[in-house]
Amino acid sequence: MTSRLNPYLNFRDATRDAMTFYQEVFGGELTLSTYGEFGMTQYPDELDKIMHSQLETPAGFVLMCADVPNEIPLAEGGPISISLSGDDVDELTGYWEKLSASGTIGQPLTEAPWGDSFGECTDRFGVMWLVNIAGRAA
């Protein structure tokens, strides 16, 4: 098996909604497993929380996410952002439009000084996304 590195997001109670949204953005197959399914909580209000979720997209992206149990502190924000980059203008622009539509744009997707198109947004779940579309070769 090849090793791979992928983002793993944590929310308090928004994992199901967030991962459904990301599936709408990127497509792919989403799996959701609850704490209740695996008998991993003693609290009735946590039975339907997502213990683990995974989205595998047609582009080969893998995004994982979980709801943090109530008794565990949830780090707000943090020094993380997710970067999408490549040269497929239509694909990356489509991701940008969906991620930023219900979020906040920090840097509009425009031509950057290094010749690529670059934008930064924070989606409605508080996750920062950086999108870089490679410029055309001279």
From TrEMBL:
UniProt cross-references to InterPro entries, sorted A to Z: Glyas_Bleomycin-R_OHBP_Dase, Glyas_Fos-R_dOase_dom, PhnB-like
Residue ranges constituting the Glyoxalase/fosfomycin resistance/dioxygenase domain according to the UniProt record: 11-129
Gene3D superfamilies, A to Z: 2,3-Dihydroxybiphenyl 1,2-Dioxygenase, domain 1
CDD domains in the record: PhnB_like
PANTHER family: PROTEIN YJDN, PROTEIN YJDN-RELATED
Name of protein: PhnB protein
Organism per entry: Labedella gwakjiensis
